[in-house]
Description:
This protein is α/β, with parallel strands linked by helices. The protein has 3 domains: 123 residues, Methylthiotransferase, N-terminal domain (Rossmann fold, 3-Layer(aba) Sandwich); 229 residues, tm_1862 like domain (pyruvate-formate lyase- activating enzyme, Alpha-Beta Horseshoe), CATH 3.80.30.20; 69 residues, CATH 2.40.50.140. It contains 13 helices and 20 strands. The strands form 4 sheets. Strands 1, 2, 3, 4, 5, 6 and 20 form a 7-stranded parallel sheet that branches. It has a 6-stranded parallel sheet with strand order 7-10-11-12-13-14. A 5-stranded mixed beta barrel has the order 15-16-17-19-18. β3, α2 and β4 form a beta-alpha-beta unit.
Amino acid sequence: xxxxxxxxxxxxxxxxxxxxxxxxxxxxxxxxxxxxxxxxxxxxxxxxxxxxxxxxxxxxxxxxxxxxxxxxxxxxxxxxxxxxxxxxxxxxxxxxxxxxxxxxxxxxxxxxxxxxxxxxxxxxxxxxxxxxxxxxxxxxxxxxxxxxxxxxxxxxxxxxxxxxxxxxxxxxxxxxxxxxxxxxxxxxxxxxxxxxxxxxxxxxxxxxxxxxxxxxxxxxxxxxxxxxxxxxxxxxxxxxxxxxxxxxxxxxxxxxxxxxxxxxxxxxxxxxxxxxxxxxxxxxxxxxxxxxxxxxxxxxxxxxxxxxxxxxxxxxxxxxxxxxxxxxxxxxxxxxxxxxxxxxxxxxxxxxxxxxxxxxxxxxxxxxxxxxxxxxxxxxxxxxxxxxxxxxxxxxxxxxxxxxxxxxxxxxxxxxxxxxxxxxxxxxxxxxxxxxxxxxxxxxxxxxxxxxxxxxxxxxxxxx
Length: 464
């Protein structure tokens, strides 16, 4: 086909965003253009999420909206990719005749074949694809920050999770390959890299020689120009002392850890097949805080798993009060066919899930307000992101304890006559604190960003 412009919509997690960036990189390398507006695109690609019910519904809605645009506008093809496509291949193909091609979660590099060759309507290779540093990819975040996927798939069998069925077994990338991609991202302007995988702390167990995550961190710590390395999705079961020491001692590894814990009731942890206990979780959190002073902890929890009683939920609330996490996400359990939990007795009614979710979120909001106040009067190193979305007279940024897109921002209301631009690292005195955001004044420049960075390639993102 002669169409040469594409609009990509990405739903779900940062790992899915990286897959979209691979599709985008392949297309741009072949001479395609990225269309900022779907109405102006020759091809619309919807990269779907199929993790939980809310995500599936959002993906279907995005597909239907794109199908309407295709009918009314210039788009010649509509492609549906990702986890939902992998999970329901026959159903989607039957119910959505307006979709021209379906790509499974292991097929992001097949996008050119679909658009430029004689490809089948449904392309579902086994989900065994894993990128390398040589895989075409175009970062869709501002050039000073990027995600770096270090592994694909998962070997855990959590009772509530469908991901292993969609993404396959754990497949780690070699250390030298990851370092090469990090060097490439830094050459394009990245100062911050966020490591992602389904199970970060399982990194390397499937590779020859069984390298570990702490070895990877030491190698990344040598990448010149890289200022911040952040860890996301660290499974709590495997956390050796060497990893704690690496987080503590490597200057470029920020003292931030995203570690989904899911629950604190031993009965529920067993039902979830998490492989730990409330005692082991408390001991790990205590070790982290003792060995890494000031560490910022993010976690995610699930309410409403089958069999969760009010007593179990109160145990979880007490755990949150006790641990006082810096950042907390709460999911309502979603009954997903193909998972062990879907077959469990004592499914919790939706209204009970909602009520527990609201109570836990309110509890965290109260705790967070208190924690945020502790920042007032402190000076923090902040990565400048750019103008405030509501006014050009303010800038925004993030300190090391704020991950992109999810953890709030630092609003810069006084630049002290400093020449500050996106990607710069500055010292900020915090003067005000709110539930999510901090407000402060720039008191000095730590490091200027390289000014040779390319223009950002925007990808529309819809979060769950």
